[in-house]
Amino acid sequence: MSELMVPPARLRGHLRPPPDKSVSHRSALLGAIASGTTVVRNFLRAADTLATVRCLQTLGVEAELEGDALRVRGRGLRGFLPPKRVLDVGNSGTTMRLLCGLLSQHPFEATLDGDDSIRRRPMDRVIRPLCAMGAWFEARLDRFAPLRIRGGVLRPIRYALPVASAQVKSAVLLAGLVAEGRTAVIEPQTSRDHTERLLRAMGVPVETAGLEISVVGPAQPRAVELTVPGDLSSAAFFLVAAAAQPGAELVVEDVGLNPTRTGILDALRAMGARLEITDLREERGEPVGSVVVRGGELRGIEIRGELIPRLIDELPVLTVAAAVAEGETVIRDAAELRVKESDRIASLARNLRAVGAEVEELSDGLLIRGGQIRGGVVDSFGDHRIAMAFAVAGLLSEEGITVTNTDCIATSFPGFEQVLRSLCGT
Fold this sequence. Notes:
Elements: E1 3-6, E2 12-15, H1 21-33, E3 37-41, H2 47-58, E4 62-66, E5 69-73, E6 87-88, H3 93-103, E7 109-113, H4 116-119, H5 124-133, E8 136-140, E9 144-150, E10 158-160, H6 166-176, E11 181-186, H7 194-201, E12 207-209, E13 212-217, E14 225-227, H8 232-243, E15 249-256, H9 263-270, E16 274-283, E17 286-294, E18 302-303, H10 315-324, E19 328-331, H11 344-354, E20 358-362, E21 365-369, E22 376-379, H12 384-396, E23 401-404, H13 416-424
Parallel strand pairs: 2-15, 3-14, 6-7, 10-11, 18-19, 22-23
Antiparallel strand pairs: 1-23, 3-5, 4-5, 7-9, 8-9, 11-13, 12-13, 15-17, 16-17, 19-21, 20-21
């Protein structure tokens, strides 16, 4: 078990965040079913994304990393080979759910499994629509991994998501690529649209009408060359740390600014943070730019409703900002946090109390009374975002914070500690 001790410190400097994890996953998976060879530059080399690559290789896909680039020779729709072993997704829920969509296209049986955390995460949300399309699943208690799946001849559906989920939406749309006719997903709120943007870049028409997204199959994606932007979710830890420190200044360069992901910037602005966007441009349908943040005093706000899907992964570090802000911050409509890598609502409440913050756990969120973070020892609960959030809390604390069980950080942000130390000048 590893640990990370972070003393109080002020951030200054420039950050080029690691490549976007969501885009890296999707570029590998869509490249695998494309016609031709897809080249993905600035591909994230992290445990989660490497699990995706290994699963594709087990399915007969030629996917090779060359430096920071991934080269994927597509096998076309329904071109995967029957796997000779279990497809191990590790800790990656994205890999498992999106592969369910792709495997639904194939007329053979495969088994998907992962670590203890994945085995606790419900998969029935993706199983239900894919079964309605014609796939067959067998799951532990009908909702947990390991999953056995057998694809077949799929039929199009029009499916209303009970909870906004980019992963479930993507799985249904990917299955819809082989179904004869129009497959549509209706969202309760807008979720991440990386899959839709990449499909369009690969020549597949995707129609969006309000909260309804659809594809007409059969539709064969074409190979592309693309560069993955920096990951805003990874940058968020440092954006929050700088925003909450008077005198701090940070420039985050070449980061993805997809509007379905920029809820963190909206929330920080509402809290009084001074943020500026520069060098805004578009690369393969994805907005990219730089973010300049200058530190100051923050105030508590209410975070709920349609903002939640746009910052669901950033909520852990936003609770740290709330703990040092003036006044109360209320987070509601975020019950989805209970079925992430840990029960993030319970984990955050426990850790915030352990470092001296005043917090009330709600069924679907948290109430945090701002003031100060004293310091202490907390556990990550094996959750990479909890680990990094409380490392940031150490910077804002009075006495420093030690985070235990930090090996999990490597699932999304290898080198996090080195970046943290360099921006603090330590």
